[in-house]
Specification:
- With 191 residues, this protein is an all-beta fold.
- Helix content is 0%, strand content 38%.
């Protein structure tokens, strides 16, 4: 995830030396000095998590596996680059498959529009209240995800593992972001 100061936060990964799959490790790359530094470990080991930079500069980490490819971490964590600390969102537990497509929304919310690893519905997390809302309960097989500015794409966030996803939209499945309070933005890609 890109931090406000231009550094890059890299979270989790694969434990090549031990019996576990995921790792807690965090590394930060500074492209100005071309150096890597260790950051504080996350609370949970995560293999294939998604790190999403929030509007306030913090980074939300969701999903990831601990011991095997379906042992998903249900607790999101937030990294604060100002304090160099992690906060667990224990009230926001939700089992999300690996490689989730997570996009920032207005008012401190994020949209989880699918996963590359397993079929799932579409959900919104309100970070302040640590509550999830189901936007679309259809369980979709999504292979990638993209968010469009309203009026510039297929109507919002879309994804699909073609040709399987073509049943709902000629270009894949899409959620209308106007229902979520998105009025403007730029194209965001995930996956």
């Amino acid at each position: 995830a890109l931090l406000a100061d231009g550094r890059v936060l890299v979270v989790g990964g694969h434990d090549c030396d031990g019996p576990q799959l995921g790792i807690k490790m965090v590394n930060i790359f500074d492209p100005a000095t071309m150096t890597w530094t260790r950051g504080p470990d996350m609370a949970y080991r995560r293999w294939y998590p998604t790190a999403t930079t929030l509007a306030d500069g913090r980074v939300l980490v969701t999903a990831g596996s601990v011991n095997n490819t379906t042992d998903y971490v249900p607790v999101p964590e937030i990294y604060d680059p100002e304090t160099n600390t992690w906060t667990q969102l224990t009230g926001a537990q939700n089992t999300i498959p690996n490689y989730p497509f997570v996009f920032g929304l207005p008012a401190g919310r994020v949209l989880v529009a699918g996963s590359d690893e397993a079929k799932m519905g579409t959900h919104v997390l309100d970070i302040a209240t640590q509550t999830w809302t189901t936007v679309d309960a259809r369980v979709l097989d999504a292979g990638s995800g993209v968010m469009y500015e309203p009026g510039t794409g297929p109507g919002g966030v879309g994804g699909g593992d073609f040709p399987q996803a073509r049943g709902h939209h000629p270009q894949g499945d899409a959620a209308d972001l106007r229902r979520l309070g998105v009025q403007s933005g730029r194209k965001e890609e995930s996956g």
